[in-house]
Specification:
The protein is α/β, with parallel strands linked by helices. It is built from seven helices and five strands; from the N terminus they run βαβααβαβααβα. Helices cover 33% and strands 9% of the residues. Helix 1 (84-93) packs across helix 7 and helix 3 packs parallel to helix 4. The longest helix has 23 residues, at 124-146. The radius of gyration is 32 Å and the shape is globular. It starts with 72 loop residues before the first strand and ends in a 5-residue tail after the last helix. 26% of the residues are buried.
Length: 253
C-alpha cells in the first residue's frame, strides 16, 4: 500500500458510481427509476441515569487486600475497658490516608444539660440518647466517606441485640462497614476500667456483666482480637492485619 507524505494514506474512493458512469436524475425518470430514500442517521440509545441511593449510603471503592491506603469504614466493638477508643484513635492517627475517629461516647456526651448517665440506670431516656448518638455518628461517617475520608467508630455493641446494635450501625453507615471485636480477658478489662474516671468508669459488677454478654461474639463469624497482652501499637497492628483479611474475605453478618 502506498502512503502519502506525513504517514496518512491516500483518500479512499467514494462508494458512488464509477467516474464516467451516468448518474440517474433524482426522482422518477422516464425509465421509472426512483432514487432510494436516504436512511435516517442511527440513533444511540439513551444513557441510563444513575439511581440515587435513598439510604444515603456511600459505595466504597474496592480495596486492595493488604493495603493501608484504602478508604474504609470500621466499627470497633468491645466492652468498657477493652481499650477500643484508645486503639481506634491511634489506628486512625497512624494511617497514611485521611481517617476520622468517631466515638459514640464522645457524641453521647455532647448532651450537657439533661444527659442520661447510664450509671444512674438504663432507661428509656438513656436508650433514646444512645439511638440519637448512633444516628449522629452514622451521618458523620457517611459525610466523611463521601469526601474520601476513612472512618473508624467504636461502640459497645451486644451480640444479643442484633437489630438495635450491629444491624443499626449497618443501616446508618452502610453495607461496606467492617466490624471487628476487641475482647481481652475479664481481669484486663477490670484493671483498665479501674483507671477510668467520671461517668465512663463502671462498677466491677457492670463490667463483668457487659464482658459476659460480649463473649457471645465468639462463633458469630466476626473477627475477634484478644488484646490481653498487647499494648496500643501492637493492637493497632493486629487490627490492620484483621482488616486486610476482612477486605479479602468479608465476614458475613
Amino acid at each position: 500500500m502506498q502512503h502519502a507524505v506525513g504517514g496518512w494514506g491516500q483518500p479512499g474512493h467514494h462508494p458512488g458510481p464509477h467516474p464516467g458512469v451516468p448518474v440517474p436524475p433524482a426522482g422518477p425518470s422516464a425509465g421509472g427509476w426512483t432514487a432510494p430514500p436516504v436512511p435516517p442517521p442511527a440513533m444511540l440509545p439513551p444513557m441510563p441515569q444513575p439511581v440515587p441511593d435513598p439510604t444515603g449510603h456511600v459505595t466504597l471503592p474496592p480495596a486492595v487486600p493488604g493495603t493501608r491506603g484504602a478508604t474504609l469504614a470500621v466499627l470497633l466493638i468491645g466492652p468498657a475497658g477493652a481499650g477500643k477508643t484508645t486503639v481506634a484513635r491511634h489506628w486512625a492517627s497512624t494511617r497514611p490516608v485521611p481517617t476520622a475517629h468517631i466515638s459514640l461516647d464522645d457524641v453521647r456526651e455532647w448532651v450537657v444539660s439533661g444527659f442520661a448517665d447510664p450509671q444512674s440506670g438504663w432507661n428509656d431516656h438513656s436508650e433514646a440518647q444512645y439511638r440519637l448518638a448512633r444516628r449522629t455518628c452514622g451521618f458523620a461517617a457517611r459525610n466523611f466517606l463521601a469526601n474520601g475520608i476513612s472512618c473508624i467508630l467504636d461502640d459497645a455493641v451486644f451480640p444479643d441485640r442484633p437489630v438495635v446494635g450491629l444491624g443499626g450501625w449497618k443501616r446508618h453507615v452502610g453495607p461496606g462497614l467492617l466490624p471487628v471485636v476487641l475482647l481481652p480477658g475479664l481481669e484486663i478489662v477490670l484493671e483498665r476500667n479501674a483507671e477510668r474516671s467520671g461517668n465512663r468508669r463502671l462498677s466491677d459488677e457492670e463490667v463483668a456483666r457487659i464482658h459476659g454478654r460480649m463473649a457471645g461474639w465468639y462463633g458469630s463469624g466476626l473477627p475477634i482480637i484478644d488484646n490481653s497482652h498487647h499494648d496500643v501499637e501492637a493492637t493497632a497492628r493486629a487490627l490492620d492485619e484483621t482488616l486486610a483479611r476482612a477486605i479479602s474475605t468479608p465476614p458475613r453478618w
